Amino acid sequence: MTIGIGVIGAGVMGADHARTVARHVGGAELVAISDPDESRARAISGEIAGCRPFTDGLELIADPAVEAVLIASPDHTHVGFVLACLGAGKHVLCEKPLAPTSAGCREVLEAERALGRRLIQVGFMRRFDPAYVEMRSVLKRGELGKALLLHCAHRNATAPGFFTPEMSITNAAVHEFDILRWLTGSEIIAVTALNSARKGDGGLRDPLVLLVEMEDGVLADVELFMNAAYGYDIRTELVCENGTVDLGRPAPNLHRRAGTEARSFPSDWRGRFGDAYRLQLQAWLASVRGQEPAGADASDGLAATRVAEAALASLESGRRVEIATDRP
């Protein structure tokens, strides 16, 4: 059974999702793409046979040919589009964050619960990355003992032009919050945000360090550096009682010249997490067909945003901020 997919958002992320659906995921057909900028929607639809352009995401959701929707539009639009998908009874994969605020996440979560069935998956694709999957498997097998510490770094070569100071946490750090919860199976109970010496004169408080406390006693430090210049670099080291696991990275080419040896880094997330995005889409489509849902659900989206709000509050106050541990 082929599923008709509509993608909302034809920017870099949406365009990449659209091409992955059309070219690398079996059993799916990209039938529609929308963007307020008609030229961007038409550029993608012109590449892919049978894909129609829209300028209104709500019209795309209402189209009968669209059986499931992938949302990759700006963060502040997510709630409205997800609620429209729920109203139409259509499965939706929403890029992170589910919403920029916990109030928005709760509105979505309550609307889904009122339907009595799960239709939402949140795009925390690291859960599908083979290196993270292997790290979690090692921890669950218990061969290294229990987890004690996690060291994480999230570095971009250059922050996107639309990034606000808050988005380093609400848009980027939410990946770290979700993967910490997923790896350990424990909730985050407190966060402390620390400013470092700032790079340049830009508006971002960059880099940042977050100290994250887990309910099971695990501590994690998270570095966020949105303008690291040298490339896109994601690092995680899991420290256990009897050993450590360092996150593997796709093997880049090794360059040798003029007496030096160096490895290259990808310029953005596509070079690092291409497989994870494809595997995420395959798992989502399987759930659309009726198989057991996989990936992060709406409550996971809410949990990550709640931690992000606490981190922003800590950044402003300079104090440790606690987070309620009740399951949303």
Fraction of residues in helix: 25-40%
Number of helices: 9
Distance between the first and last residues' Cα: 35 Å
The Cα radius of gyration reads 20 Å
Q: What is the string of helix and strand elements? A: EHEHEHEHEHEHEHEEEEEEEHHE
Descriptive notes:
The strands form three sheets. The protein has a seven-stranded mixed β-sheet with strand order 12-11-7-10-9-8-15. The mean pLDDT is about 95. It folds into two domains: about 5-125 and about 275-295, NAD(P)-binding Rossmann-like Domain (Rossmann fold, 3-Layer(aba) Sandwich); about 130-270 and about 305-320, Dihydrodipicolinate Reductase, domain 2, CATH 3.30.360. Helix 4 runs parallel beside helix 5 (about 100-115) and helix 7 packs across helix 9. It contains nine helices and 15 strands. It is α/β, with parallel strands linked by helices and about 325 residues long. It comes from Kumtagia ephedrae.
